[in-house]
Amino acid sequence: GGVTPAANAAQHDEAQQNAFYQVLNMPNLNADQRNGFIQSLKDDPSQSANVLGEAQKLNDSQAPKADAQQNNF
C-alpha cells in the first residue's frame, strides 16, 4: 500500500486550507501574530496541524476573560 506523494500532498493541502481558514477567523490574534502563522503555513504545509494548534493556544490565551469563562464548558 502506502500513500502516494500526490495523495499525501492533497491531504496537506486540505489541512493547510483548513488551518488558513481557522487562523484568519481567530478573533484574539493581532495582525503580526496572524501573519506569522499564515507565513508558517505557507513555508511548511506538512506542519499545518501543529501551526494551527499553536495559533489556537495563543488565541485562547489572549481571549477576553469574560468570554473565556462563558466558553468553559
From TrEMBL:
Q: Where in the cell is it found?
A: Cell envelope; Secreted
UniProt keywords, alphabetically: Repeat, Secreted, Signal, Virulence
| Pfam families according to UniProt | B (PF02216)
One GO molecular-function annotation for this sequence?
immunoglobulin binding
Q: Which GO terms describe its cellular component?
A: cell envelope; extracellular region
Q: Does the keyword Repeat apply?
A: yes
Question: Residue ranges under compositional bias (Polar residues)?
Answer: 58-73
Give residue ranges for domain Protein A Ig-binding. 10-61
The record's principal subcellular location, in a coarse class, is: other
- Keyword Cytoplasm recorded: no
Which residue ranges run through the membrane?
Answer: none
| Stretches for region Disordered | 54-73
UniProt protein name: Protein A
**Organism from which the protein derives:** Staphylococcus aureus
